[in-house]
Amino acid sequence: GRAHLQLAIFEILCEHYKEHYFETETSFLNTKQIIKLLIKNKATKWTIETELNPIQIIQAIDKIKLSAFKKLNKEIIVSKKWKGYAISPNVIVKKGDI
């Protein structure tokens, strides 16, 4: 469902963040790249249907952002027009917490 999609996207953004953590500039993923990774990673614990479109990704990311902002009063995902989305560089992500 929708919650699984949100969790899968957040997991992808976290993995991307870890891979690019030591770079000086924030590395963004656009919606097409996220969809490719979701389909490629469909063997993960989150079951995702292969028929995904950019609007579903944007809506899911907006839900993640809203939920995190309500709970943590912090913007955890940043976006840049044409470049896409990334975990905010001032956020430390650790298991079981943010």
Short description:
By secondary structure, the chain is mostly helical.
| Overall average pLDDT | 86
**Helix and strand run:** HHHEE
Strands of the biggest beta sheet: in what spatial order?
1-2
Count of alpha/pi helices:
3
Backbone structural class? mainly alpha
Question: How much of the polypeptide forms β-strand, as a percent range?
Answer: 5-15%
| Low-confidence regions | none
Q: How many beta strands in the DSSP annotation?
A: 2
Characterize the main sheet.
2 strands, antiparallel
Overall outline:
globular
- The separation of the N and C termini measures 23 Å
Helix content range of the residues, please?
Answer: 40-55%
Annotation keywords:
globular; 2 strands; mainly alpha; 3 helices; two-stranded antiparallel sheet; 98 residues
Write up this protein.
The protein has 98 residues and is mostly helical. The chain is built from three helices and two strands; from the N terminus they run αααββ. It starts with a helix and ends in an 11-residue tail after the last strand. The relative contact order is 0.20.
